[in-house]
Design goal:
Layout: H1 7-21, H2 23-35, H3 42-63, H4 66-79, H5 89-108, H6 112-117, H7 123-136, H8 140-155, H9 160-182, H10 192-218, H11 233-263, H12 266-302, H13 306-333, H14 335-342, H15 346-379, H16 382-406, H17 410-443
Length: about 450
Protein backbone atom coordinates (compact mmCIF):
# COMPACT_ATOMS: atom_id res chain seq x y z
CA UNK A 1 0.00 0.00 0.00
CA UNK A 2 1.29 3.43 -0.94
CA UNK A 3 1.83 5.92 1.86
CA UNK A 4 2.26 9.67 1.95
CA UNK A 5 5.75 11.03 2.39
CA UNK A 6 5.52 14.58 3.77
CA UNK A 7 8.33 16.97 2.91
CA UNK A 8 8.96 17.54 6.60
CA UNK A 9 9.83 13.83 6.97
CA UNK A 10 12.56 14.20 4.35
CA UNK A 11 13.85 17.46 5.82
CA UNK A 12 13.79 16.00 9.33
CA UNK A 13 16.20 13.31 8.17
CA UNK A 14 18.17 15.38 5.65
CA UNK A 15 19.19 18.40 7.71
CA UNK A 16 20.66 16.49 10.68
CA UNK A 17 22.36 14.13 8.20
CA UNK A 18 23.73 17.16 6.35
CA UNK A 19 25.30 18.53 9.52
CA UNK A 20 26.65 15.13 10.56
CA UNK A 21 27.95 14.44 7.07
CA UNK A 22 30.10 17.55 6.83
CA UNK A 23 31.92 16.78 10.09
CA UNK A 24 34.88 14.96 8.48
CA UNK A 25 35.48 17.43 5.61
CA UNK A 26 34.94 20.30 8.05
CA UNK A 27 37.74 18.93 10.23
CA UNK A 28 40.10 19.07 7.25
CA UNK A 29 38.80 22.48 6.15
CA UNK A 30 39.32 23.87 9.67
CA UNK A 31 42.87 22.52 9.63
CA UNK A 32 43.46 24.27 6.30
CA UNK A 33 42.07 27.64 7.39
CA UNK A 34 44.01 27.67 10.66
CA UNK A 35 47.28 26.16 9.42
CA UNK A 36 47.18 28.35 6.30
CA UNK A 37 47.67 31.38 8.51
CA UNK A 38 50.71 30.23 10.51
CA UNK A 39 53.73 32.55 10.19
CA UNK A 40 56.00 30.21 8.21
CA UNK A 41 55.79 27.29 5.74
CA UNK A 42 52.04 27.88 5.44
CA UNK A 43 51.86 26.96 1.76
CA UNK A 44 53.91 23.79 2.26
CA UNK A 45 51.71 22.87 5.24
CA UNK A 46 48.53 23.33 3.19
CA UNK A 47 50.00 21.15 0.46
CA UNK A 48 50.88 18.47 3.04
CA UNK A 49 47.36 18.50 4.49
CA UNK A 50 45.95 18.13 0.98
CA UNK A 51 48.09 15.14 0.11
CA UNK A 52 47.55 13.40 3.46
CA UNK A 53 43.87 14.27 3.29
CA UNK A 54 43.57 12.60 -0.11
CA UNK A 55 45.13 9.39 1.20
CA UNK A 56 43.17 9.36 4.45
CA UNK A 57 39.94 10.08 2.59
CA UNK A 58 40.68 7.08 0.42
CA UNK A 59 41.11 4.87 3.50
CA UNK A 60 38.00 6.25 5.21
CA UNK A 61 35.81 5.94 2.11
CA UNK A 62 37.10 2.48 1.24
CA UNK A 63 36.79 0.96 4.70
CA UNK A 64 33.93 3.15 5.87
CA UNK A 65 31.43 1.50 3.54
CA UNK A 66 30.12 -0.40 6.56
CA UNK A 67 27.83 2.59 7.14
CA UNK A 68 25.91 2.04 3.93
CA UNK A 69 25.83 -1.74 4.36
CA UNK A 70 24.54 -1.60 7.92
CA UNK A 71 22.10 1.21 7.13
CA UNK A 72 20.60 -0.62 4.15
CA UNK A 73 20.05 -3.92 5.95
CA UNK A 74 18.79 -2.38 9.21
CA UNK A 75 16.35 -0.08 7.37
CA UNK A 76 14.99 -2.91 5.21
CA UNK A 77 14.34 -5.08 8.27
CA UNK A 78 12.79 -2.11 10.05
CA UNK A 79 10.44 -1.61 7.10
CA UNK A 80 9.49 -5.29 7.23
CA UNK A 81 8.97 -5.13 11.05
CA UNK A 82 11.73 -7.70 11.64
CA UNK A 83 14.38 -5.58 13.35
CA UNK A 84 14.95 -8.18 16.08
CA UNK A 85 16.43 -10.52 13.48
CA UNK A 86 19.47 -8.27 12.85
CA UNK A 87 20.13 -6.68 16.23
CA UNK A 88 23.45 -8.52 16.58
CA UNK A 89 24.72 -7.53 13.10
CA UNK A 90 26.15 -4.06 13.94
CA UNK A 91 28.48 -5.41 16.65
CA UNK A 92 29.81 -8.11 14.34
CA UNK A 93 30.38 -5.58 11.56
CA UNK A 94 32.11 -3.09 13.87
CA UNK A 95 34.54 -5.64 15.30
CA UNK A 96 35.45 -6.78 11.79
CA UNK A 97 36.11 -3.28 10.49
CA UNK A 98 38.10 -2.27 13.58
CA UNK A 99 40.44 -5.23 13.15
CA UNK A 100 40.95 -4.27 9.51
CA UNK A 101 41.63 -0.63 10.47
CA UNK A 102 44.34 -1.66 12.92
CA UNK A 103 45.94 -3.80 10.22
CA UNK A 104 45.92 -0.88 7.75
CA UNK A 105 47.38 1.43 10.39
CA UNK A 106 50.20 -1.01 11.13
CA UNK A 107 51.05 -1.48 7.44
CA UNK A 108 50.92 2.17 6.35
CA UNK A 109 52.66 3.79 9.32
CA UNK A 110 56.26 2.69 8.56
CA UNK A 111 55.87 3.40 4.83
CA UNK A 112 54.43 6.92 5.10
CA UNK A 113 57.30 8.50 3.17
CA UNK A 114 57.00 6.05 0.29
CA UNK A 115 53.22 6.52 0.17
CA UNK A 116 53.42 10.30 -0.22
CA UNK A 117 56.26 10.16 -2.70
CA UNK A 118 53.77 8.21 -4.79
CA UNK A 119 51.59 11.35 -4.61
CA UNK A 120 54.51 13.37 -6.04
CA UNK A 121 55.32 14.98 -2.67
CA UNK A 122 58.95 16.00 -2.21
CA UNK A 123 61.28 18.10 -0.07
CA UNK A 124 59.52 20.19 2.59
CA UNK A 125 56.04 19.10 1.49
CA UNK A 126 57.00 15.43 1.88
CA UNK A 127 58.50 16.03 5.32
CA UNK A 128 55.39 17.88 6.52
CA UNK A 129 53.10 15.22 5.03
CA UNK A 130 54.87 12.36 6.84
CA UNK A 131 54.81 14.23 10.15
CA UNK A 132 51.13 15.11 9.80
CA UNK A 133 50.10 11.62 8.69
CA UNK A 134 51.85 9.73 11.49
CA UNK A 135 49.71 11.63 13.97
CA UNK A 136 46.45 11.82 12.01
CA UNK A 137 46.35 8.09 11.20
CA UNK A 138 46.01 7.27 14.91
CA UNK A 139 42.44 8.53 14.63
CA UNK A 140 41.62 6.19 11.74
CA UNK A 141 40.07 3.40 13.89
CA UNK A 142 38.04 6.02 15.79
CA UNK A 143 36.65 7.37 12.52
CA UNK A 144 35.64 3.93 11.21
CA UNK A 145 33.93 3.06 14.49
CA UNK A 146 31.98 6.32 14.40
CA UNK A 147 30.96 5.73 10.78
CA UNK A 148 29.68 2.23 11.59
CA UNK A 149 27.63 3.55 14.52
CA UNK A 150 26.23 6.33 12.33
CA UNK A 151 25.18 3.66 9.81
CA UNK A 152 23.23 1.88 12.54
CA UNK A 153 21.48 5.11 13.49
CA UNK A 154 20.60 5.72 9.84
CA UNK A 155 19.09 2.28 9.54
CA UNK A 156 16.92 3.10 12.56
CA UNK A 157 15.75 6.29 10.74
CA UNK A 158 17.60 8.52 13.20
CA UNK A 159 19.96 11.24 12.04
CA UNK A 160 19.61 13.51 15.08
CA UNK A 161 22.04 11.69 17.37
CA UNK A 162 24.79 11.58 14.70
CA UNK A 163 24.26 15.31 14.19
CA UNK A 164 24.86 16.07 17.88
CA UNK A 165 27.92 13.82 17.96
CA UNK A 166 29.33 15.37 14.80
CA UNK A 167 28.81 18.89 16.17
CA UNK A 168 30.61 17.90 19.36
CA UNK A 169 33.53 16.56 17.36
CA UNK A 170 33.70 19.60 15.08
CA UNK A 171 33.65 22.11 17.94
CA UNK A 172 36.27 20.08 19.81
CA UNK A 173 38.51 20.03 16.73
CA UNK A 174 38.27 23.76 16.03
CA UNK A 175 38.92 24.76 19.67
CA UNK A 176 41.91 22.43 19.91
CA UNK A 177 43.16 23.61 16.51
CA UNK A 178 43.30 27.20 17.77
CA UNK A 179 44.99 26.19 21.04
CA UNK A 180 47.50 23.71 19.66
CA UNK A 181 48.40 25.28 16.31
CA UNK A 182 48.92 28.83 17.60
CA UNK A 183 49.66 27.97 21.25
CA UNK A 184 49.09 30.11 24.32
CA UNK A 185 51.82 32.62 25.07
CA UNK A 186 53.72 31.67 28.20
CA UNK A 187 51.67 28.50 28.69
CA UNK A 188 51.67 26.33 25.56
CA UNK A 189 54.16 26.67 22.69
CA UNK A 190 52.67 26.69 19.16
CA UNK A 191 52.74 23.25 17.54
CA UNK A 192 51.74 24.43 14.04
CA UNK A 193 51.01 21.49 11.69
CA UNK A 194 51.48 18.87 14.42
CA UNK A 195 48.98 20.71 16.59
CA UNK A 196 46.35 20.44 13.85
CA UNK A 197 46.96 16.71 13.60
CA UNK A 198 46.64 16.16 17.35
CA UNK A 199 43.44 18.24 17.43
CA UNK A 200 41.87 16.05 14.76
CA UNK A 201 42.81 12.79 16.51
CA UNK A 202 41.38 13.95 19.83
CA UNK A 203 38.17 15.11 18.13
CA UNK A 204 37.82 11.75 16.35
CA UNK A 205 38.27 9.96 19.69
CA UNK A 206 35.61 12.12 21.32
CA UNK A 207 33.16 11.31 18.51
CA UNK A 208 33.84 7.57 18.70
CA UNK A 209 33.32 7.33 22.46
CA UNK A 210 30.23 9.54 22.35
CA UNK A 211 28.64 7.56 19.50
CA UNK A 212 29.06 4.24 21.32
CA UNK A 213 27.60 5.63 24.54
CA UNK A 214 24.56 7.10 22.78
CA UNK A 215 23.94 3.93 20.75
CA UNK A 216 23.95 1.77 23.88
CA UNK A 217 21.74 4.13 25.87
CA UNK A 218 19.24 5.23 23.24
CA UNK A 219 18.66 2.21 20.98
CA UNK A 220 17.82 -1.51 21.32
CA UNK A 221 21.07 -2.39 19.52
CA UNK A 222 23.64 -4.28 21.61
CA UNK A 223 27.37 -4.03 20.92
CA UNK A 224 28.08 -7.37 22.60
CA UNK A 225 29.75 -9.66 20.09
CA UNK A 226 27.63 -12.77 19.57
CA UNK A 227 28.57 -15.82 17.51
CA UNK A 228 27.76 -17.45 15.16
CA UNK A 229 27.48 -14.64 12.63
CA UNK A 230 24.07 -13.24 11.76
CA UNK A 231 22.46 -14.69 8.62
CA UNK A 232 22.76 -11.26 6.95
CA UNK A 233 26.51 -11.08 7.52
CA UNK A 234 27.08 -12.71 4.11
CA UNK A 235 24.94 -10.13 2.30
CA UNK A 236 26.55 -7.36 4.34
CA UNK A 237 30.01 -8.59 3.31
CA UNK A 238 28.97 -8.74 -0.36
CA UNK A 239 27.56 -5.22 -0.26
CA UNK A 240 30.65 -3.85 1.46
CA UNK A 241 32.93 -5.65 -1.02
CA UNK A 242 31.04 -4.05 -3.93
CA UNK A 243 31.29 -0.66 -2.29
CA UNK A 244 34.94 -1.37 -1.50
CA UNK A 245 35.76 -1.85 -5.18
CA UNK A 246 33.57 1.13 -6.10
CA UNK A 247 35.41 3.35 -3.66
CA UNK A 248 38.77 2.17 -4.94
CA UNK A 249 37.66 3.39 -8.38
CA UNK A 250 36.53 6.69 -6.87
CA UNK A 251 39.85 7.15 -5.11
CA UNK A 252 41.79 6.35 -8.26
CA UNK A 253 40.18 9.49 -9.66
CA UNK A 254 41.09 11.46 -6.54
CA UNK A 255 44.63 10.09 -6.63
CA UNK A 256 45.14 11.15 -10.25
CA UNK A 257 43.75 14.59 -9.51
CA UNK A 258 46.02 15.08 -6.48
CA UNK A 259 49.11 13.61 -8.15
CA UNK A 260 48.75 15.75 -11.27
CA UNK A 261 48.14 18.89 -9.18
CA UNK A 262 51.26 18.10 -7.13
CA UNK A 263 53.27 17.65 -10.31
CA UNK A 264 52.37 21.22 -11.34
CA UNK A 265 54.19 22.60 -8.26
CA UNK A 266 53.65 23.59 -4.62
CA UNK A 267 51.40 26.54 -5.46
CA UNK A 268 49.17 24.38 -7.64
CA UNK A 269 48.75 21.59 -5.09
CA UNK A 270 47.99 24.18 -2.39
CA UNK A 271 45.28 25.77 -4.55
CA UNK A 272 43.96 22.36 -5.57
CA UNK A 273 43.76 21.32 -1.90
CA UNK A 274 41.62 24.32 -1.00
CA UNK A 275 39.28 23.73 -3.98
CA UNK A 276 39.07 19.99 -3.23
CA UNK A 277 38.14 20.53 0.41
CA UNK A 278 35.47 23.06 -0.52
CA UNK A 279 34.10 20.67 -3.16
CA UNK A 280 33.98 17.85 -0.61
CA UNK A 281 32.31 20.17 1.88
CA UNK A 282 29.63 21.02 -0.69
CA UNK A 283 29.29 17.36 -1.64
CA UNK A 284 28.69 16.32 1.95
CA UNK A 285 26.16 19.10 2.40
CA UNK A 286 24.20 17.85 -0.60
CA UNK A 287 24.72 14.38 0.82
CA UNK A 288 22.24 15.27 3.57
CA UNK A 289 19.46 14.60 1.06
CA UNK A 290 21.35 11.59 -0.23
CA UNK A 291 21.31 10.23 3.32
CA UNK A 292 17.57 10.75 3.53
CA UNK A 293 17.25 8.76 0.30
CA UNK A 294 19.50 6.05 1.69
CA UNK A 295 17.47 5.79 4.88
CA UNK A 296 13.97 5.95 3.41
CA UNK A 297 14.56 3.90 0.26
CA UNK A 298 15.65 0.86 2.26
CA UNK A 299 12.61 1.08 4.50
CA UNK A 300 10.21 1.55 1.55
CA UNK A 301 11.82 -1.35 -0.31
CA UNK A 302 11.39 -3.56 2.76
CA UNK A 303 7.72 -2.56 2.85
CA UNK A 304 7.45 -3.09 -0.97
CA UNK A 305 5.96 0.41 -1.32
CA UNK A 306 7.25 1.15 -4.83
CA UNK A 307 4.93 4.06 -5.56
CA UNK A 308 6.16 6.04 -2.56
CA UNK A 309 9.71 5.04 -3.41
CA UNK A 310 9.33 6.59 -6.86
CA UNK A 311 7.87 9.75 -5.32
CA UNK A 312 10.82 9.85 -2.94
CA UNK A 313 13.30 9.84 -5.83
CA UNK A 314 11.48 12.65 -7.65
CA UNK A 315 11.18 14.78 -4.52
CA UNK A 316 14.80 14.33 -3.50
CA UNK A 317 15.94 15.18 -7.02
CA UNK A 318 14.14 18.54 -6.87
CA UNK A 319 15.48 19.32 -3.40
CA UNK A 320 19.01 18.28 -4.30
CA UNK A 321 19.20 20.36 -7.47
CA UNK A 322 17.71 23.35 -5.64
CA UNK A 323 20.17 23.01 -2.77
CA UNK A 324 23.10 22.54 -5.15
CA UNK A 325 22.10 25.68 -7.04
CA UNK A 326 21.90 27.59 -3.75
CA UNK A 327 25.44 26.50 -2.83
CA UNK A 328 26.66 27.64 -6.25
CA UNK A 329 24.99 31.03 -5.82
CA UNK A 330 26.48 31.56 -2.34
CA UNK A 331 29.92 30.60 -3.64
CA UNK A 332 29.59 33.04 -6.54
CA UNK A 333 28.57 35.92 -4.25
CA UNK A 334 31.48 35.26 -1.86
CA UNK A 335 33.95 34.35 -4.62
CA UNK A 336 36.68 36.91 -3.93
CA UNK A 337 36.54 36.43 -0.14
CA UNK A 338 36.99 32.65 0.03
CA UNK A 339 40.63 32.19 -1.00
CA UNK A 340 42.06 34.64 1.57
CA UNK A 341 40.36 32.66 4.35
CA UNK A 342 42.79 29.81 3.71
CA UNK A 343 46.02 31.47 2.61
CA UNK A 344 47.78 34.80 2.27
CA UNK A 345 49.87 33.60 -0.69
CA UNK A 346 48.71 35.70 -3.70
CA UNK A 347 49.82 33.05 -6.21
CA UNK A 348 47.76 30.36 -4.48
CA UNK A 349 44.74 32.68 -4.33
CA UNK A 350 45.10 33.48 -8.03
CA UNK A 351 45.18 29.79 -9.01
CA UNK A 352 42.26 29.06 -6.68
CA UNK A 353 40.11 31.78 -8.24
CA UNK A 354 41.00 30.62 -11.74
CA UNK A 355 39.31 27.23 -11.22
CA UNK A 356 36.82 27.50 -8.34
CA UNK A 357 34.04 28.57 -10.72
CA UNK A 358 34.11 25.07 -12.24
CA UNK A 359 33.26 23.54 -8.84
CA UNK A 360 30.38 25.98 -8.41
CA UNK A 361 28.94 24.99 -11.78
CA UNK A 362 29.20 21.33 -10.77
CA UNK A 363 26.97 21.60 -7.71
CA UNK A 364 23.53 20.89 -9.29
CA UNK A 365 25.01 17.99 -11.29
CA UNK A 366 26.66 16.65 -8.15
CA UNK A 367 23.23 16.66 -6.52
CA UNK A 368 21.86 14.19 -9.08
CA UNK A 369 24.81 11.83 -8.67
CA UNK A 370 24.88 11.96 -4.87
CA UNK A 371 21.10 11.71 -4.37
CA UNK A 372 20.74 8.57 -6.46
CA UNK A 373 23.99 7.14 -5.17
CA UNK A 374 22.46 7.24 -1.69
CA UNK A 375 19.17 5.77 -2.89
CA UNK A 376 20.91 2.87 -4.62
CA UNK A 377 22.92 2.13 -1.47
CA UNK A 378 19.68 2.02 0.51
CA UNK A 379 18.21 -0.37 -2.04
CA UNK A 380 21.24 -2.63 -1.76
CA UNK A 381 22.12 -2.10 -5.45
CA UNK A 382 25.81 -1.99 -4.63
CA UNK A 383 27.02 -4.12 -7.56
CA UNK A 384 25.57 -1.64 -10.05
CA UNK A 385 27.26 1.24 -8.21
CA UNK A 386 30.54 -0.66 -8.34
CA UNK A 387 30.36 -1.33 -12.07
CA UNK A 388 29.31 2.23 -12.88
CA UNK A 389 32.27 3.74 -11.00
CA UNK A 390 34.71 1.32 -12.62
CA UNK A 391 33.45 2.26 -16.08
CA UNK A 392 33.29 6.02 -15.57
CA UNK A 393 36.70 6.21 -13.92
CA UNK A 394 38.44 4.00 -16.46
CA UNK A 395 36.67 5.19 -19.61
CA UNK A 396 35.83 8.80 -18.75
CA UNK A 397 37.96 10.27 -15.96
CA UNK A 398 41.43 8.97 -16.78
CA UNK A 399 41.27 9.56 -20.59
CA UNK A 400 39.82 13.05 -20.13
CA UNK A 401 42.48 14.01 -17.60
CA UNK A 402 45.30 12.70 -19.79
CA UNK A 403 43.93 14.56 -22.81
CA UNK A 404 43.55 17.91 -21.01
CA UNK A 405 46.97 17.53 -19.37
CA UNK A 406 48.47 16.90 -22.82
CA UNK A 407 47.10 20.26 -23.92
CA UNK A 408 48.47 21.94 -20.74
CA UNK A 409 45.15 22.87 -19.19
CA UNK A 410 46.65 22.54 -15.69
CA UNK A 411 44.32 22.80 -12.70
CA UNK A 412 41.40 23.80 -14.93
CA UNK A 413 41.85 20.52 -16.82
CA UNK A 414 41.67 18.55 -13.56
CA UNK A 415 38.42 20.17 -12.45
CA UNK A 416 36.81 19.98 -15.89
CA UNK A 417 37.63 16.28 -15.78
CA UNK A 418 35.85 15.97 -12.43
CA UNK A 419 32.85 17.79 -13.94
CA UNK A 420 32.62 15.38 -16.89
CA UNK A 421 33.11 12.39 -14.58
CA UNK A 422 30.37 13.39 -12.14
CA UNK A 423 27.95 13.91 -15.05
CA UNK A 424 28.54 10.40 -16.35
CA UNK A 425 28.08 9.07 -12.80
CA UNK A 426 24.73 10.71 -12.14
CA UNK A 427 22.78 10.32 -15.38
CA UNK A 428 22.81 6.47 -15.53
CA UNK A 429 21.63 6.25 -11.90
CA UNK A 430 18.67 8.52 -12.58
CA UNK A 431 17.70 6.59 -15.72
CA UNK A 432 18.03 3.15 -14.12
CA UNK A 433 15.96 4.19 -11.09
CA UNK A 434 13.15 5.42 -13.32
CA UNK A 435 13.37 2.37 -15.55
CA UNK A 436 13.15 -0.07 -12.65
CA UNK A 437 10.58 1.49 -10.34
CA UNK A 438 8.17 3.28 -12.69
CA UNK A 439 6.67 -0.06 -13.88
CA UNK A 440 6.58 -1.45 -10.32
CA UNK A 441 4.84 1.69 -9.02
CA UNK A 442 2.10 1.36 -11.67
CA UNK A 443 1.31 -2.19 -10.55
CA UNK A 444 0.58 -1.14 -6.97
Amino acid sequence: MSQTLPSKTIHKLAFPALIAGIAEPLLSTADLAIVGNIPYNATESIAAIGIVGAFLSMLVWVFGQTRSGISSIISQYLGANKLHEVQDLPAQAMVSILLISLLILGISYPFASEIFQFYNASDAVLSHAVTYYKIRVIGFPFTLLTIAVFGTFRGLQNTVYPMYIALLGTVTNIVLDLLLVYGIEGVLPPMHLQGAAYASVIAQGVMAVSSVIVLLKKTPISLRLVLPFNKEMKRFTQMVSHLFVRTIALNIALYFGTAYAASYGTTSIAAYTIVLNLWLLGAFMIDGYSSAGNILSGKLLGAKDYKTLLKLGNTLLRYGIGFGSLLALIGAICYRNIGPLFTKDPLVIEQFENVFWIVLCMQPICAVAFIFDGIFKGLGETKYLQNLLLLTTGLVFVPTLLLLDHFNWGLAGIWITFFVWITFRGLPLFLKFRQKFSPLAQKV
